[in-house]
Amino acid sequence: MNTPALFCNQCGQQNSAAAGFCTRCGGTLAPVPAAVLAVPAPAAVSPYGGFWIRVLAKLIDSVVMNIIMVPIAVIVFLVAMAGGRGFRDFGSSGRLPIALIGLILLFVALAVVAVWLYEAFATSSSWQGTLGKKVLRLKVTDLNGQRISFGRATGRFFAKIVSGWLLNIGFIMVGFTERKQGLHDMMAGTLVWRQ
User: How far is CA 54 from CA 108, 127, 180, 194, in A?
Assistant: First the structure.
């Protein structure tokens, strides 16, 4: 015997027939005709961006960032060579390792700033996500589904460092949490939605 139930038209969650609002997403429930109740409900598709689609979005963003960062690396190297009279002089004085370390640190600093600005501006823009997320029809919102600010997008970016420090467990959490949130999403109070 089938017990009367209502299925949310927003997230597909099965709810009690007496419920007025969905227990998962809070959406208003509409009564389902009795004939439909006898048919098993299809498996609900999560409205959230899951682990693998977000990995693919990150790969797309990595390609974009490499297209941006390789020319910057070449420019930094050429400027250092021109300003430092080449590495010939550094090698004879023993300053070559120091010059190389300085050059690497400068490039890393530029890379971090470039990636931060790319992610923070794109995520807080009307796109609500980076190019990879836009291509895969994902968007980042606050917990109420609203666009996030540049400050929150910045916090989310730097929270990703924490997700990575913990053996990437913060990222792996996306595959196991109900709303597909990584540690960085929880810290920033954000969700990634599928459109």
Answer: 24, 16, 10, 10
